[in-house]
Amino acid sequence: MATIKVTQTGSPIRREKDQRATLIGLGLNKMHKTRELEDTPEVRGMIRKVSHMLSVEK
Fold first, then answer.
1. CB of 52 within 8 A of CB of 14?
2. Residue ranges per domain, the chain?
3. pLDDT in tens, 3-50
4. Which CATH superfamily is domain 3-57 in?
5. DSSP letter string over 3-49?
């Protein structure tokens, strides 16, 4: 299956609790941490929710 490379570029400080939980769900909890995730609709939805704090590559 295809993968997406996601890097956290924004801080979760002073963000809503659900946005912080979404970052943890994606496996991102520190600045500049990168994960390769499967390209599924569920992951895309989570990325869309916190897109202002992420950098995404295919």
1. no
2. 3-57
3. 999 999 999 999 999 999 999 999 999 999 999 999 999 999 999 999
4. Ribosomal protein L30/L7 (3.30.1390.20)
5. EEEEEE-S--TTS-HHHHHHHHHTT--STT-EEEEE--HHHHHHHHH
